Amino acid sequence: MATIGDVARAAGVSRSTASYALSGKRAISADVRRRVEEAVRELGYTPNAGARALATSQTMVIGLLAQFLEDEFAPAMLQYMLGVSNTARELGYDILLVSDADGTRALRRITDSRMVDGIVLLNVAERDERLPILRSAAQPGALVGLPADCTGVDVFDLDFEEAGRVMVDHLHRLGHREVALVSQPEHVIERGGAYVWRLQNAAVEAARARGITLHPVSAAAHQPDVGRDLNALLDAHPGVTGLLVHNEAAAAALPTVLHERGLTAPEDLSVVGRYSDEFARTFSLPYSSIESAPDRLGRMAVRQLVRRIEGEVAADEPHVVRFVTPELVDRGSTGAPRTT
Amino acid sequence: MATIGDVARAAGVSRSTASYALSGKRAISADVRRRVEEAVRELGYTPNAGARALATSQTMVIGLLAQFLEDEFAPAMLQYMLGVSNTARELGYDILLVSDADGTRALRRITDSRMVDGIVLLNVAERDERLPILRSAAQPGALVGLPADCTGVDVFDLDFEEAGRVMVDHLHRLGHREVALVSQPEHVIERGGAYVWRLQNAAVEAARARGITLHPVSAAAHQPDVGRDLNALLDAHPGVTGLLVHNEAAAAALPTVLHERGLTAPEDLSVVGRYSDEFARTFSLPYSSIESAPDRLGRMAVRQLVRRIEGEVAADEPHVVRFVTPELVDRGSTGAPRTT
DNA sequence: GGCTACAGTCGAACCGGTTCGCAACGGACG
DNA sequence: CGTCCGTTGCGAACCGGTTCGACTGTAGCC
């Protein structure tokens, strides 16, 4: 592999001159620049990333920490990852993917060893163990997901409170008076999946304010349990005319469950989910839903992170906490409740 | 951040001694080793990855190239990625995720700049543009997917020919005499998705050998097109009693389509898919299927890649091309054909 | 004509590790 | 008591970039 020394020799200049000719950080005569560029082409020179990182203290790599936990719905994560990855590349950064079960150790490893210039954290928990480590790291961090304590990091998330209100409002306006909210498994909540109860609390509150009955239940994240949970819910609350589904696996299982019970949406039951449009199209989910905009959140996180890395924001500039406003995508799965 | 120089000073030894004490590559007295280790702990020393890469020409990072193309089913890729990522970590390697649309440029970039010690290529096409670049790279490569030319790389893939035969045999044994094979969109085939016609050709051949009729058709990879395609298929071939589904999106859309037509599997139609068990459970797909074992393939690829990186295989040792034998997972969606 | 200013280039130092060659030391042995 | 050898540690070089300070030559200016 050619080094910059080889390039310099071929062009008949010193190493430093070759370096300046390529970086443009000092004035270089047109003639020399041409010779250097030609040498680069002939030798197929590419700078050694490790050497450059050592010299500049910049790796042009962003660490992406994604946890794939039991009881969590993996495919939803993919879209966040792609949003992050694609945006990073547009801005000239590569992605170091860390799917380690032990996120804290992994985070410490890649920050301390200076493998990355910044960190994006996915599925952030209410009290995320990784946060203290991230704060003490030399690199800036951006989160997708809202923790209890946001100091020292930039935070991006869907406005789950508003999402809960929008879902309830939508069914209330159509005339529904008894609905159920299908949430994530208990495990996810216990683990600190704050978005679950952020949406749920807001939905409960909105239901109370409008005087309608809302049954919050949780359902599993996999078959066959999730099907069983959905059936149990419909058995337990026969008066329910609307379903708010805040659980991707449940949304995916719902068509089959409804079919087996001889029910149709929206004639027998109105359904509103909370997942991305991309997700709905990929899995043929026919329900209206709150768009969760994962690619957009990933994009926002990386943009801000890179601004911090490149010092475009003063180090003392306050960190941002930004919420994306949820939007309802109508797929025709809601209507007036059946009149019993 | 503490350097090895700081550690050496704190322990009262030279830099080289500190290095040897930590690597164990030379004999060091117990006393000195203790002092060095203590200094490491006190200073919170972690070796700088860039510096180490520069000195050792080893980054302990594996490049993972995954293309997310139009008309391809993204979530299936996730499982390959996780298999690769988790296995790599177990073996001490991190993953540089490259989801670049321009795979060739990205591949050249990360190999030439020595960011990675090896490369894993996902969704490999029949004549993959990335392959010549990978062969000319200094780092070894492992593929998941079978290209036309396997020289210079280790290749792992499902035995799609056998998969096609197993699917046809299965329905033939149950008494079916007219079946359809739902493949990927034409685009995927044109792009060089060899697995599509490897399975298809073998299925056609098996059908001919057993004297049964097989209609090969392709279907889109997204809603609403895939639903339309499935309906068109069932309209065009009313005599079909069995469906072989080699298209994840079609499998995901099938329950709804069958429901709308008032059909049930296996009573009205036998269905066999080709996707992973994990996939089936996540999306509540009720059909028997050929297990595609994505995590296993990813794991095999990384294992072999690391063996090459670490020189456990002689450089001239022939490269392997290994096929995983498909297995049918019975979910009760097949039976004897309805007697018309 | 002498001075300054500046464009253009070079040499050397540095980033933070690893590794090779060598020397000092102490014990065993003849 | 001298020699030989194994153990242990040190100094220096090296990996491949970047960057700072200094030096040279030429143009512009008074």
TrEMBL record, chains A, B:
<protein>
    <submittedName>
        <fullName>LacI family DNA-binding transcriptional regulator</fullName>
    </submittedName>
</protein>
<dbReference type="GO" id="GO:0003677">
    <property type="term" value="F:DNA binding"/>
</dbReference>
<keyword id="KW-0805">Transcription regulation</keyword>
<dbReference type="Pfam" id="PF00356">
    <property type="entry name" value="LacI"/>
</dbReference>
<feature type="domain" description="HTH lacI-type">
    <location>
        <begin position="2"/>
        <end position="56"/>
    </location>
</feature>
<keyword id="KW-0804">Transcription</keyword>
<dbReference type="Pfam" id="PF13377">
    <property type="entry name" value="Peripla_BP_3"/>
</dbReference>
<keyword id="KW-0238">DNA-binding</keyword>
<dbReference type="InterPro" id="IPR046335">
    <property type="entry name" value="LacI/GalR-like_sensor"/>
</dbReference>
<dbReference type="InterPro" id="IPR028082">
    <property type="entry name" value="Peripla_BP_I"/>
</dbReference>
<dbReference type="InterPro" id="IPR010982">
    <property type="entry name" value="Lambda_DNA-bd_dom_sf"/>
</dbReference>
<dbReference type="InterPro" id="IPR000843">
    <property type="entry name" value="HTH_LacI"/>
</dbReference>
